[in-house]
């Protein structure tokens, strides 16, 4: 039996559930048939890229995860050569994880494939609709971050080139 969807929040919950499923299943396959990196590695590398080197404690606070979970995740990306351990650039005691050139390359590769897939999905959308959708997603995500008390840093967007107009 399907519960009635009688409030807008029910619709949002259902559609975000489907979005998570679709994003996972529609990830473009590699030659070997799988994704180029695990979802947790993709998110971890994305955070380190935007924030800079981070310790296990900082990652634990940022993600709201137990340090043991992050130890497993960072061990996997460390073994894969996607991050390296460095002394704290600020002189602290804890060692930090910094994304490597290979991590940057693989993150760019994965992000590029995901963006191309999204462009394919939205190929018949008006650019204004895509911008509105992106703005609504950002507003939704920042609302979650506000409620959870864990803001997620966002990369600075480059300004459009006036000569390109």
TrEMBL record:
SMART domains in the cross-refs: HTH_MARR
InterPro entries, sorted: HTH-type_Bedaq_tolerance, HTH_MarR-typ, WH-like_DNA-bd_sf, WH_DNA-bd_sf
Chain ranges of the HTH marR-type domain: 30-130
One Pfam family hit: MarR
Residue ranges, annotated region (Disordered): 146-165
Gene3D superfamilies (alphabetical): Winged helix-like DNA-binding domain superfamily/Winged helix DNA-binding domain (1.10.10.10)
PANTHER family in the cross-refs: CONSERVED PROTEIN (PTHR39515), HTH-TYPE TRANSCRIPTIONAL REGULATOR RV0880 (PTHR39515:SF2)
Protein name, per record: MarR family transcriptional regulator
Organism in which the protein naturally occurs: Pseudonocardia alaniniphila
Taxonomic classification: Bacteria, Bacillati, Actinomycetota, Actinomycetes, Pseudonocardiales
